[in-house]
Design brief:
14% of the residues lie in helices and 52% in strands. The chain has one helix and nine strands, in the order αβββββββββ.
Length: 112
């Protein structure tokens, strides 16, 4: 029994050491007013000449792993427009809950 516990602990430590190193995760929600956006909305984060793309799920949630740290831009493709928001990628996860707002037919993003 003790040998089995040791094997499990060693296997767990090996799995942890083999995990890829990433700067962090950027996740959150997108809504228009109080209603979540539809699933499949394109979300892109640009930083240091690189971009990371994803989509929202049925709850308006998104999740992207960004390898670089620092200031970046999140851009959303919404109703033939591309509003963007400045944010920061950290070593650890960062949550950004954002709201799409229309002023004179032009969409912008702001933090909830």
């Amino acid at each position: 029994m003790m040998m089995m516990k040791s094997v499990v602990v060693v296997a767990f430590l090996v799995a942890l050491s083999a995990a890829p190193a990433v700067a962090g995760e950027i996740f959150g929600t997108l809504s228009e007013g109080t209603k979540p956006v539809d699933a499949g909305l394109k979300v892109e984060i640009s930083i240091a000449g690189k971009s990371y793309a994803g989509e929202t799920d049925k709850f308006g949630s998104f999740r992207l792993i960004v390898k670089e740290k620092g200031k970046c831009t999140l851009t959303v493709r919404y109703k033939n427009q591309s509003p963007s928001f400045q944010l920061v990628s950290y070593d650890k996860a960062a949550r950004y809950d954002l709201v799409l707002e229309a002023t004179d037919g032009k969409y912008s993003l702001r933090r909830k």
